[in-house]
Amino acid sequence: MSSPQTRFISRIPLERVAVLVGTGGRVKKEIEERLGVSLKIDSKEGLVEITPRPEDAKNWDPVNLFKARDIVEAIGYGFSPDRAMTLAQEDMALAVIDLTSYIGKDKEDITRIKARIIGSGGKTRRIIEETAHVYVSVGQDTVAIIGGIRDVDAAKEAVEMLIKGAPHTSVYKFLDGYAQKRKFTHLY
User: Fold this and answer.
1) Which long-range contacts (CB under 8 A, 24 or more apart) does 28-32 make?
2) Strand pairing partners for 10?
3) For the residues 7-33, what does the mean pLDDT come to?
4) What are the extents of the domains in the chain?
5) Each residue of 121-135: pLDDT tens digit?
6) For 8-88, which CATH class?
């Protein structure tokens, strides 16, 4: 049986390539072994080709290709390998919000919005993470979120509220309501 002719090519920032590879190739190897994929990394361009491993063709699950892509991209967006690897679990998702699509490319506006999302001393980001049970990474002009599908949706809505200028108290109130709903619908 030949291996599936499917692949993804992802681009990550050059400064994140070393994190993707890991000390002694540990992170790359863990992704490859856990998901049955092969990662070919071009460290000069930041390109990562993700393909099924030929030796795993009999037991190949195409979903693993998508999971590997999400893990690679999450590391590129600034998540630690441990946090990114949670995407290998069922019902976990990665959402990316492009700040430039909301506010344009003005660096001052992007800096201001990022400051609103992070909050004083990281308070707002921490509240989003703890209340919605997600991980949040604020990058150069993106906000990336990892978590359960419903949790990611709630965190994404909270971030979008902040981008659109909602007061922090309104966002905290929304998140508190989500946390209560989550608790009572046994998602907790």
Assistant:
1) 30/81, 30/85, 31/68, 31/71, 31/72, 31/85
2) 48
3) 97
4) 8-88, 92-184
5) 999 999 999 999 999
6) alpha beta
List the structure tokens of 23. Answer: 């000390």
d(CA 143, CA 46): 20
Go through 110-141 and write b for each residue having 16 or more CB atoms within 10 A of its CB, e for each that does not: beebbebbbbeeeebbebbbebbbbbbbbbeb
Quick check: do 8-88 and 92-184 share a fold?
yes
Please give the Cα distance from 29 to 81 (Å, whole number): 12
The answer to whether residues 10 and 50 touch, using CB atoms and an 8 Å cutoff, is: yes
- Give which of 175, 168, 172 is closest to 147, Cα–Cα: 175
Q: Which fold has domain 92-184?
A: Ribosomal Protein S8; Chain: A, domain 1 (3.30.1370)
Residues 6+ apart with CB under 8 A from 178: 131, 132, 154
> How much of the chain exceeds pLDDT 70, in percent?
94
> What residue has token string 């809505």?
157
